[in-house]
Amino acid sequence: MPLFPVHLLYRRMSATASSLPVVRATQERTAELKESLTEIKERVCTSARPSSKPVLVAVSKYKPAADVLACYDEGQRDFGENYVQELVEKAAQLPQDIRWHFIGTLQSNKAKILASIPGLYAIQTVTSAKAASALNKALPADRPAPLNVLLQVNTSGEDAKSGVPPLDHTAPADAELVQLARHVVAECPRLRLQGLMTIGALAQSLAAGEKENEDFVRLVATRDALHAALGRAGFPAEDGRWGEEGRLLLSMGMSSDFEAALAAGSDIVRVGTGIFGSRPKKEEVKAAA
């Protein structure tokens, strides 16, 4: 394996990828994406709480850059990716004003590559102080604004899910989520604690509309408890050191349950198949590579 600084890896890839023009989607595919994106945007607006302005993140995992560009041409600017390599390649080929959200598992050893990606707007999956510190250290000093980060909360308690445990009003000062939030705010000046994210249980998602989603309720309660805990720790909302307009944002809701999430108070929804259609399985992608 060649021995060169990892932060140069993105530049090297980007020089190669950006030299290749993005092949445009066919007229049929473009029309299909336009129709799907328009429908999802309308449903987001209809489901959002009064006066709220939720962000729609179009999750383009396993989809070609041409699909992203077709949605970009329709005014979509926020896109989400799960894999570092895929994000690197797409960011190098696509318009620089895209706001990229990394929503995959965050590994500390990938921090330098992620931090080097132009247009990286947010990482929604921070679960440890180690990863936060690695990101903070890797970000260039001349970055015009801090990188937004959201702390991932495992609201369902499933072993297969990443995330720190949720909070309630009885949460102690040394709770894992409180400690992590304090670390980002106090020790990571190049990061901005923007909010909390959850994926939630599949069963809760499938039951969307039939009953109140317990994962969404739990994340709202966790946000409220964390607000109070940060205030007690000397980081009140009035100082403006975290969140937006005095509160932490909530990223919850995907294709099957984003409307229920918005009704519960979500600020960011992550929609993939609802816009781009079904995805191939990971094994199929690897086999085709």
Measured between the Cα atoms of the first and last residue, the distance is 20 Å
Output mean pLDDT. 89
- The best one-word shape is globular
What's the Cα radius of gyration?
A: 19 Å
What is the helix fraction of residues, given as a range?
40-55%
SS elements, strand count: 8
Q: Which structural class best describes the helix and strand composition?
A: alpha/beta
Beta-strand share of residues? 5-15%
Q: Describe the strand arrangement of the main beta sheet, using strand numbers.
A: 7-6-5-4-3-2-1-8
How many strands, what sense, and barrel or not for the largest sheet?
Answer: 8 strands, parallel
Low-confidence region ranges: 1-19
DSSP summary: helix tally: 12
Give, in order, the helices and strands: HHEHEHEHEHEHEHHEHEHH
Produce a short descriptive summary:
The chain is α/β, with parallel strands linked by helices. It contains twelve helices and eight strands. It has an eight-stranded parallel beta sheet.
Key structural traits:
single chain, 289 residues, alpha/beta, 42% helix
What topology emerges from the helices and strands here?
Layout: H1 7-18, H2 27-47, E1 55-59, H3 65-72, E2 78-81, H4 84-93, E3 99-102, H5 111-115, E4 120-126, H6 129-138, E5 147-152, H7 176-187, E6 191-197, H8 202-206, H9 214-232, E7 249-251, H10 258-264, E8 268-271, H11 273-276, H12 282-288
Parallel strand pairs: 1-2, 1-8, 2-3, 3-4, 4-5, 5-6, 6-7
Helix pairs in contact: 1-4
